[in-house]
Structure formats: C-alpha cells, structure tokens
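Might you be able to consider the sequence and fold that I enclose below?
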Amino acid sequence: MELYKKPLPEGTTLCVYNRDRLIFSDSGRWLTPLFALERFLATYSGERDCLCAHDTAAGKAAAVLMSRMGIKRCHINLVSDLAVAFYEEHGIVVSWEKRIERLACKTEELLADMTSEEEMYRLLRRRAKLVRGVSIEAKKVSFAYADQKPILENLSFSVEEGGRLIIQGDNGMGKTTLLNVLMGKLKPTGGVVLIDGKEPSTLAKRTIGYIKQQQTQEQYPVSAREVVSMAVDPNLDTKQQKWEIDTALRRTGVFEMADRNFFTLSGGERQKVSLSRTLCQKARLLLLDEPTSFLDAKSRTTLVEVLHSLTVDEMPTIVIVTHDKELEADLAWPVLRLEGRHA
C-alpha cells in the first residue's frame, strides 16, 4: 500500500506527502487544514513533484483546493460524487473508503453547479473568512453642494467583503464625488454610507487605499521608492519594510525605476507606482479613479493582471470608477452605471 493511503494517525485530519515523504499534517476541521496547507506551500522549498494527500472527508470544495495546490493523488475516507467528478476531470488520481452523493454541508450545495474555478476559490475564501476586504453599504445616498442641484440622488448599492465593483458613467456624472463620499471626505446630504458597518470618517488609518487620476504637475525631489515607502507599515522591522516595498514595486513592473524622481515619470508610470503604494499599504478597500488614464497597452495589461491577482489572493474590496468600456470588458466585474445627474 502506498504510504499516503495508510490510516491517518489518531486526531489527524490531513496528511500530505511528496511521494513517500510526509511534508505536512494538520488536525483541523472543514477546509481549515487545506488553507493551512496552502500557506505552508507558499514558503515550502522542498520537492513537490508528486504531492499526495490523505483527507478524512472531501467534497467539491476540497477537490477545488487540492487541484489548485497541485495535488496529484489523494485518498479520502469519505468522498462525494461531486468531488470524484472534479478530481477525475482534473487528472487527479483518487481513491476512497466510502463514497456518497453529496456531503451534507452548505458549501457543497453552493458549489454544485459552479464551473469557474476562480469564482469557486473566491467563494471558499469568503466562507473561510480569509478575505481582507470590507463591506460597503450605500442607502439612498444623495449629495449636492450648497444651492446646487444634486450630483448624486437616492443612490443605493452594496458590495460584500472582498467584492468588486465598476462604477461607469461619462464625465460629470458624479463618479469622483462618490469616491470622496466613500472615503469620508464628503458627507452625504441624504442617506447613509457604511464601510465595514461604520461611517467612513471613523475607520482605522490605512483601511482605504485611493489612487487618483494622475494629473498633477507638481515637482518634488522624491523617488518612486520613497512614494511607495510612505505606505509601508512602520511597525515592521527595516528588513521586512524593504521586502514589502520591493515586492510591491516588482508586482507592478516599476522596480527598475524605483530610484527615479516620481514626478519625472510618465503618467502611466506614476499610476503604476501609485498602485505599488496601495499594495504596500495592504488596504482593505481600494478605490481607483480612472486607473487607465495615460496607460499604454503594456501598462494596461499589467494593471488588469495585478487587479486580477488581488481579487483571487488577498481579496480586498475594490471599487473602480471609469468611463473606459474596454476596462469593463477586460475585468468582467459587476457594474453600477451612473446616468444623467442622478443614479
């Protein structure tokens, strides 16, 4: 009998081997051991050419996670038909001790008819509360400057923790005004906005990361690295701060220009440095105002790739305001359209 198929030690719910070498075990319940395995593999430098797992129970959720982590073979004490179908579809050799139609859990029900692996993974992270993002609740929000017609009127929408939203509309429709309301810089003249169940002005520092349109003509002797470093957690030691800054710069493709004056960079380059700053901040809510302004085709591709990775991995809540229909198509996120002077 192959080692991974042998009975689990008492109290252990998951064992993972590379061939016949045990590299990980856990005693947690539900999907906790698999998410712990994911964190372990993120820093594991040993061999992983043939990962084999033994789990106490596996529904479609476990199958999705194992496939994502590169498990090649698995033995399950109690497995569902949905899991077996997913394993076989993805070329994972699966064996079991008992097979049933479905596991009696809500997650199995939610995943039953889903086909997008990315969306299934996002759902599992939300249910496991492994989401950085915060909720947004806007109820009948209106805003008008003194003695002027409303820019926003009776606007209602919500975004769940780790959710995504594109706010579409032509210039002058109140998109940037809405961002300022979400940040607490403007107070609604009617209705209420709650971020993580709180008024925006009461949120902890660093909760919201904002990337504005790159239109400034100001000039200061500040490097791109210094701009990003303004967002790093000051409680980290110097070595960790440098790692966070360098990682954020590399992620957006501007590491090579880290020592250049920020204000001598092109608009698109400044936009990517600003995104690096927000990544370094680890904000729970990202607000982006016309992020594709001044971006060339290569920079647009980088932006979309970074946003995509954020929505799958860290999962902050992200709101983008734009009139760029191409970006809307590229991201395929839910859309809120602002039309006329009212929503």
User: Anything to note?
Assistant: The chain has a mean pLDDT of 89. Residues 297-312 form the longest helix (16 residues). The two ends are 65 Å apart (CA to CA).
